[in-house]
Design goal:
The strands form 2 sheets. Strands 3-2-1-4-5 form a 5-stranded mixed sheet, with helices on one face. A two-stranded antiparallel sheet has the order 6-7. 16% of the residues are buried. The chain has a single domain, classed as 2-Layer Sandwich (Nucleotidyltransferase, domain 5), CATH 3.30.420. It is globular, with a radius of gyration of 15 Å. The longest helix has 11 residues. The chain has 1 helix and 7 strands. With 114 residues, it is mostly beta strands.
Length: 114
């Protein structure tokens, strides 16, 4: 199902980039030379913090040009966006309200926000 683009997500929105695919020898996580498919997702949250709507978009790379396309297609300019500190989001912060947080993983794989 393809979205019409007439109803962009708004309010509290979480955005993150990720890869989809199995293990590759010598590659870990997000790698520029990986054969894995790259994507970005945007999740609109309710006031209770539950998922209201979700969009995912396949992208060619993790550059601002690719990431900004998902913002323009699916996110209202008045949305309060939260994302990680990936440098590809920095230029988009000029047009959107974006709060960046740093993700770190400890041995129990719990996220910490700084």
């Amino acid at each position: 199902m393809k979205p019409s683009g007439n109803n962009p997500i708004a309010g509290r929105v979480n955005v993150d980039e990720f890869v989809v695919g199995g293990k590759e020898t010598g590659k870990q996580g997000i790698s520029c030379t990986s054969k894995k498919k790259k994507a970005v997702c945007a999740v609109e949250l309710t006031k209770d913090g539950k998922v209201k709507r979700f969009y995912a978009l396949r992208i060619d790379d993790f550059s601002n040009k690719s990431l900004k396309t998902s913002f323009e297609k699916h996110i209202n300019k008045d949305a309060k966006v939260t994302t990680d500190k990936w440098k590809g989001y920095r230029p988009t912060a000029k047009d959107y309200t974006i709060e960046h947080y740093q993700v770190c993983m400890d041995l129990t794989l719990r996220r910490c926000i700084r």
